[in-house]
Amino acid sequence: MRVDLFDFDLPDERIALRPAEPRDSARLLVVDPNAETIRDYRVGDLPSFLRPGDALVFNDTKVIPAQLEGIRHREGAGGQQVSATLHMRIGANKWKAFAKPGKRIKEGDRIAFGHSGESCMIGSLDATVEEKGEAGEVTLAFDLSGPALDEAIASVGHIPLPPYIAAKRPEDERDRADYQTIYAREEGAVAAPTAGLHFTPALFEALDKAGVERHFVTLHVGAGTFLPVKADDTADHKMHLESGYVGAETAARLNAVKQRGGRIICVGTTSLRLIESATQDSGEIRAWSGATGIFITPGYRFKAVDMLMTNFHLPRSTLFMLVSAFSGLDTMRAAYDHAIQTGYRFYSYGDASLLFRKD
């Protein structure tokens, strides 16, 4: 499909720079393409749209301070300030990362992370550029490994705010809490599963009283989620891989939900992509682990997921393509027009939508 079919104009003031307080007070746009309805609610109203026996699926990945600043060193050349955003761990001491300025980095370069060249080192974290790929992607082999590397990254790294927020304000201490779900536990994400940012203990309690199950999967969201689709046709776009897993017990319980007539509601596109990656053509969800690059566009046949709670996404993005596949392109264009006209807040810290799958 043509990528420009997924374009729209978003006023700059619609981009949220902070989350709603409390989190579950954010607005919730309920979109049912089968009933041809678009309705305005609050996230706290979510239990009223679910039934006893339904199951919510959350991504329990935890954001790490994956934005690193440092100085590149090369024999015969002076030091140069560089930044790297880690996006996928591939070994005990190795990460894939997006580096800037990418064109000036070469294989074999040494990078000393932990300072910008204007201050003293606040930690020790050195790496070698082992491999250089496309679009500024590099493979970094760190001198530290395992837990020691994790501690060093936590010491010198910064929360990698999405570019549409970072362009407007610097990261601060509030983001360490705001840009994390209350149930995050598996470290490894570069970006938060933002639909989950709306949940509070009070909302969990209300869902429990409504008889709605909660299940957790893990997909470590990578920085590739923010990369624009540069191709003119979706067939020419290559998704970046993200690693995750679905446990055997979780898969069995979700299959049981389907068998008794319950619905699976994914909280976020990350959990949806992982569940769909783990589902067979028969509709059976199986235990799964590995790296997924599933690219969902209109025409995709959903095998397991019945409803989706998600934030509002960027124009021409793979995520807007996904929601258009889920509820229909015309429906989602109308929903986004409504959201823009009625003041919904967009992107990571913005409001949410609850989408019914188009049957």
Key features?
359 residues, 29% strand, alpha/beta, globular, six-stranded antiparallel beta barrel
Description:
It is a single chain. This protein is an alpha/beta fold and 359 residues long. 21% of the residues lie in helices and 29% in strands. It contains eight helices and 17 strands. The protein has helices at 146-156, 163-166, 173-178, 201-209, 248-259, 269-278, 318-327, 329-341, and strands spanning 27-32, 37-42, 55-59, 61-63, 67-74, 77-91, 94-100, 110-113, 125-132, 137-142, 186-189, 213-219, 242-246, 264-267, 288-292, 307-311, 352-356. A hairpin with a 2-residue loop joins strand 6 (77-91) and strand 7. The chain is globular, with a radius of gyration of 21 Å. The two termini are 21 Å apart.
Summarize the structure.
The chain has 359 residues and is α/β, with parallel strands linked by helices.
**N→C terminal distance:** 21 Å
What is the residue-averaged pLDDT?
A: 93
* Strand order, largest beta sheet: 2-1-17-16-14-3-12-13-15
- Class of secondary structure makeup: alpha/beta
| Number of alpha- plus pi-helical segments | 8
Secondary structure layout:
Elements (H helix, E strand, L loop, with lengths): L26 E6 L4 E6 L12 E5 L1 E3 L3 E8 L2 E15 L2 E7 L9 E4 L11 E8 L4 E6 L3 H11 L6 H4 L6 H6 L7 E4 L11 H9 L3 E7 L22 E5 L1 H12 L4 E4 L1 H10 L9 E5 L14 E5 L6 H10 L1 H13 L10 E5 L3
Parallel strand pairs: 1-17, 3-12, 3-14, 4-11, 14-16
Antiparallel strand pairs: 1-2, 5-6, 5-8, 6-7, 7-10, 8-9, 9-10, 12-13, 13-15, 16-17
Helix pairs in contact: 7-8
